[in-house]
């Protein structure tokens, strides 16, 4: 299952976080672990270059997009390859919403649109294109289904 | 405080720190949400407020029930607006708020209207929201629309309906299963995503129907699947079909060609999925593996870390079962040792350690040494374990590998890491005789500066066992005696015992050891002083150079030979009395552990770990029960009680199982009976045993059960005499005979008159394994050598065609009923030969050890070499007879 999706700014402040099946008391640990992982490894990494880490049976795929670091954590069938697909969908949705690689300010400015994009993800990213760049279709459920299945 | 939410000019540097959500506060935002109630809606302002609400939720903020309800009702007002952007926000907000059942009704009609709207986006989103918040009753109302949506020409709408179906399958499967035809149609969709979602849903609907899944796979593997994601799913379903077909078919593996063709797919994820599927096939051959390994090898030099990681992780798994197949990748793998990503580097190293050959060991070790300093403990442990296996594989290389281990032992590290290293050194010392002296010295140096009490005591114990057997035992004394000065009480006590062992085992050292032990008499700790006193008084007469009595040695240092759990139970049951506690009364039977607690396959037992202790013994309970029955009181000591054998099938009227109790000259059957019919009471319940197929047995006593009410188990006993010390075997047929009386379950009244009735039970066999008790030994090699070859019997047997080597091994183990030692009951996947070590005690208290060597050839013919050592040649012969007749 997908355990977490987390967006942070360059200082490690959380912008968006979603946990799934992670007990509340472990979330803080995950949050700081991921932020540290990003701080250690994401410096100088190109936009959208995917990095991978594994901790016991849990996989983490993470990347940087402008000022924003994005982390996806999964286990079992949500291995590094499935997570790479997921994070690709996420980065594409964010780029769609912002119109370009986001600065932190742009990300916050477009916060509502990004939420919609994440909800209505997929169209641009999984090869189905609609006429406008961000018409809005589909949704977070599609996202979840990619996660659920792969 | 609150800054303007949107400030468009984003190119000015001085505003880099600006956040539209700076100082955001839940109460204020909830106040702002009142704009939703304005008669003149401002869509832009409303969208901004919803964004703020979403931001709060995404930061982990929660709304109380009342707050959520208020926001929900306010949001429903926004359906009045025709602004598309705002409507999308409304859909999202409704899902976030997950309204309760009584609130849902407010939005149902609006959503149902949107579901049939001409705007595609409304239709798709409304379907998703409705399916998220709805229950079964509403679902039947909208089912018609959902079925239409699945085959909608707009892929967005179709996918929305399919995905909703996947979610609904968990709550209302009976409804979703009715959409099978529409979903089937959607699988043929030209839109990749629809195909993917439709395939997933179709498989979930049919997953319990093997034939349907097989048909689905057959048809799709012939056609073309557009979506790479769907292709991945298809590969997974195909491997499932292959796995199930493999047991029924022979010859060529079905669908292998399909998997192989996927290795040439243009999408990386499909290639990986296919490669992994091939490597995980049951009994995969080298020919089948080669193409998969080749594509994985290419990915090892990919520029993307994810792909390198995926490739090396897969190859690492393959190396566990087929190391030779991976050797071609070694050069690529070596370059990964310097990979920036430590996970990749560790996987590469451990793979290389599994696949490397003897000549490359030294080079590899050099590379690893540089690498070890900058990885975390958890990775280091993996590397240490891999090095241990490598050393066992190439014993001649022990020197460099042992040096490596001792070097890393001196470096910083946590307990788990140090324990892994110490365990590895111990195992190497045990298995490679040449490595012993060198290894012991490394351990001695380690305890000079060891911060972990547990490890120090374990090493001291190990030193006491192995040190005296070396060519110059005196060189270890210094390290041991230092512990008496420098350590805490636990370690000091362990050091005293170790010193005493040296004194007892090496006569020349005895006087000097005695001097040291006497100094320990003034230690500040009771335990240390007590141990010193005990050893000084038992080991020898004033430290003269004379041999210590064997009895004393056995008493002080011999292995207990009794499972600790059993002795614990016996001590707890012992009531203080005139009669002292008799250690011989403790049962030696090792209880089989539940499957879940067994070690992982292929894992060797940990070096220093205490032997696994079984659950509390039931043998005591049996012994108590039998000794309380006068008829059996003169049978002597109970040798062994078997596990219960079921004599009825599950869920029958009467449930009966039997426990076989073995005595020297008798066998007692304990029938445990349960009456599962509330309307019946059984009386005068007996088991009529026919022993005509058990010639050496004669019935001597039986103990019927007076009454057997519903659901209250009772026992019936039957005792048979047999020749003393002979492992007599035979088959017994059983019939339950009783008088049945009707019971009124409501009042509990029993009718006076009963009817005699009988109930046939399954046959029961007494087999040779019943005369062997499972008693483990901690070190098989030592035990084997100490029994000696006097009564060794060796012979070879053909076991005929077998399903697998593992099956043959477990069959022989259960035939002999002995305790597998050192984890040798586990057969590595696909191995062609295996050695299994067994130990036990034969009736008459005769120790017996068995070494089984198995080999399997092409047509699955298994051959076995059986070597038996015991303290009695008759017993050695008997073990062979058991195998020959089994």
UniProtKB/TrEMBL annotation, chain A:
Give the residue spans that cross the bilayer.
none
Record keyword Transport present: yes
Q: How does it sit in the membrane?
A: Peripheral membrane protein
Q: Which GO terms describe its cellular component?
A: COPI vesicle coat; Golgi membrane
Q: Which UniProt keywords apply?
A: Cytoplasm, Cytoplasmic vesicle, ER-Golgi transport, Golgi apparatus, Membrane, Protein transport, Transport
Instruction: Offer one example of a GO biological process linked to this entry.
Output: retrograde vesicle-mediated transport, Golgi to endoplasmic reticulum
Query: Where located?
Result: Cytoplasm; Golgi apparatus membrane; Cytoplasmic vesicle, COPI-coated vesicle membrane
| Primary location group | cytoplasm
PANTHER family cross-referenced by the UniProt entry:
TSET COMPLEX MEMBER TSTD, ZETA-COAT PROTEIN
What this protein is reported to do is described as:
The zeta subunit may be involved in regulating the coat assembly and, hence, the rate of biosynthetic protein transport due to its association-dissociation properties with the coatomer complex.
Family named by the database record = Belongs to the adaptor complexes small subunit family.
UniProt subunit comment: Oligomeric complex that consists of at least the alpha, beta, beta', gamma, delta, epsilon and zeta subunits.
* Name of the protein in question: Coatomer subunit zeta
Q: Which organism is it from?
A: Citrus sinensis
The major lineage groups are: Eukaryota, Viridiplantae, Streptophyta, Embryophyta, Tracheophyta
Automatic annotation (TrEMBL), chain B:
Coatomer gamma subunit appendage Ig-like subdomain domain ranges (all copies): 621-766
What are the boundaries of the region Disordered?
593-617
Gene Ontology cellular component terms for the protein in this record: COPI vesicle coat; endoplasmic reticulum; endoplasmic reticulum-Golgi intermediate compartment; Golgi membrane
Q: Where in the cell is it found?
A: Cytoplasm; Golgi apparatus membrane; Cytoplasmic vesicle, COPI-coated vesicle membrane
Source domain of life is Eukaryota
Q: How does it sit in the membrane?
A: Peripheral membrane protein
Question: Residue limits of the Coatomer subunit gamma C-terminal domain?
Answer: 769-883
Q: Where is the Clathrin/coatomer adaptor adaptin-like N-terminal domain?
A: 27-539
Q: Name one GO biological process term.
A: protein secretion
The principal localisation class reads cytoplasm
Q: Which UniProt keywords apply?
A: Cytoplasm, Cytoplasmic vesicle, ER-Golgi transport, Golgi apparatus, Membrane, Protein transport, Repeat, Transport
Q: Which GO terms describe its molecular function?
A: structural molecule activity
Its assembly, as annotated, is:
Oligomeric complex that consists of at least the alpha, beta, beta', gamma, delta, epsilon and zeta subunits.
Q: What does this protein do?
A: The coatomer is a cytosolic protein complex that binds to dilysine motifs and reversibly associates with Golgi non-clathrin-coated vesicles, which further mediate biosynthetic protein transport from the ER, via the Golgi up to the trans Golgi network. Coatomer complex is required for budding from Golgi membranes, and is essential for the retrograde Golgi-to-ER transport of dilysine-tagged proteins.
Q: Which family, according to UniProt?
A: Belongs to the COPG family.
Q: What is this protein called?
A: Coatomer subunit gamma
